[in-house]
Amino acid sequence: MPSTYAPVSADESCGLRERKKRETRRAINLAALDLVEDRGFVAVTTEEIASRAGVSARTFFNYFPSKEAAVIGTTADELEAYAQQLETAEPDEGPLQVLRRILAGMLAPASIDRQLRAKRRRILLGEPALAPALVGNNIRIENALTAALERRLGLAPGASIEARVTVAAAISAVRACIEHQQNGGGGRLERNIDAAFEQLAAGVR
């Protein structure tokens, strides 16, 4: 009787590993967000996050270097995807338009993983203790997007200040809107981001 077993190809095996990694990363991120939302950022430890996610402490640190990183959740794969969006956007969509779409998408609960995005957004708006980690995360995002915008504009790395100023201004605009909300400011976050980018567009041609 012929065997019905079909060996797994190298490509399929690689795909399974990548899917497992994504699932583990998401589990750790969601565990961190759940615990911080329930108890506050300061009270949560990396060991508790690992336990909630069902992984060892060693596995936790294979994915995230700290509990701050686990809460914020931005990974190298995500940074690469954001950079690619900017670099390959349609020519008629200006850099500020693309940056607004990318940066707002990082917070938007309407994105693919609505549960994770919505929870992450609530935490970022409600935990001022995460501010230093957000600064470091913003620097990573700024560097990745600046390099992508330089490639899109055909600029050699560091040859002009134009790309970095544009990216830094866009990130600062979103950060200002988040801080506005954290300090009791009015208006919806999305509308405030729109207004901030309208201000930028009036001065950044």
Automatic annotation (TrEMBL):
Domain of life assignment: Bacteria
Keywords per UniProt: DNA-binding, Transcription, Transcription regulation
GO molecular function annotation: DNA-binding transcription factor activity; transcription cis-regulatory region binding
Domain HTH tetR-type, residue spans: 22-82
Keyword Metal-binding belongs to the record: no
SUPFAM superfamilies linked to this entry: Homeodomain-like
PROSITE patterns registered for this protein in UniProt: HTH_TETR_1, HTH_TETR_2
One matching Pfam family: TetR_N
Regions recorded as binding DNA: 45-64
Leader sequence residues: none
Protein name per its UniProtKB record: TetR family transcriptional regulator
Organism per entry: Terracoccus luteus
